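ARCHIVE CARD
Drawer: 12
Card no.: 0347
Subject: one protein chain, sequence and derived structure
Cross-reference: see card 0346
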Amino acid sequence: MDVRLIHLAQTALAVFLEALPFLVLGSLVSACMEVFVPRAWVERRVPKSLPGALAFGVALGTVLPTCECGVVPVVRRMMGKGVPVPAAVAYMLAAPVVNPVVMVSTWVAFRGDMLMTGLRAAVVAATAVAVGISVRRMVVGGALRAHVSGGPDACGCGCGHDDAEFGHAHAGPASGPASGQGGGQGGAQAPLLPQFSEVQAAMMAVPAASAAAGAASPTLIPPAAAVSRAAQVHGVARHMTADLLDACAWLLPGALAAAAFRTFTPPEALFLFMDTPALAIPALMGLAVLLSVCSEADAFVAASFVGFPASARLAFVALGPMLDLKLMAMYGAAFRRGLVLRLVVLPTLCVWAACMLLAGLGVPE
């Protein structure tokens, strides 16, 4: 077999395995968010103003660290829970860089260079805010693709759940056999697991019937925690599996494309762009997109480009966590075309403009 094909397979597998743990973590976080976090709770806590929503999204990235490999499933669940599109987009772009793990890895990779570490976080945060402002008029229905929007098709109540198995409460008349659980608008299908209220009613009916017949019977205590916990664990596993399989289906083509570039592009092809920032910055931005290295490791790759200007290496570590081949594939799977175009074009322009400005000012050296 051709040595290059073996290298292609090994590299693609390495990219996939590098991303997989973070994708699993992201899918788990998104599934837990879907099951345990009520939509109303989220809506009450996210600021209503645009500046507040953007600040909330960027700040959330510092306390809820997520690699770019797993952030897309988390963000689409956030949108389904009522987080405004600008806040969700700002979090999605900023979280892979502004979290403490990546900040420390950047500092280590660049040998304690606090300026490079700070500039990376600043450029990414500013880009996240700019993209968030560009989608300020976009609603969730216009951002998410239909099959992941968590709309009325997923649950009759329109709450964003994929089904009504968790007994979530809604304002309005109590649901019953005639209306369907959750106040379905169009007849939601019966859940696979029974509602806890139904289990409780059935269990309490036994001693009541026995007492009416004059028989002595022990008091039955319905295992509320056990029933609800079983439903929640089932839901987390099901949502996590669905998110993980959906993301992996789009991660594989991205990993193959990145591996093909690494395998078939001669290293000397990059030497043509090393002399001037005007050429080096776009070259390393393109390389960041093609290599698709996770944000926890990309600083070490950038630090190895010793012949390139610091501004070009900054462009590499700033753009890569917001835009690469695997992310473009995952963006296309989760979001509508208008949002995908913004996620591709605006980070590219913002990072290029910021790094060219810094190069002109001689920062960083």
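Annotation on reverse: The CA atoms of residues 264 and 339 lie 32 Å apart. Residues 224-264 form the longest helix (41 residues).
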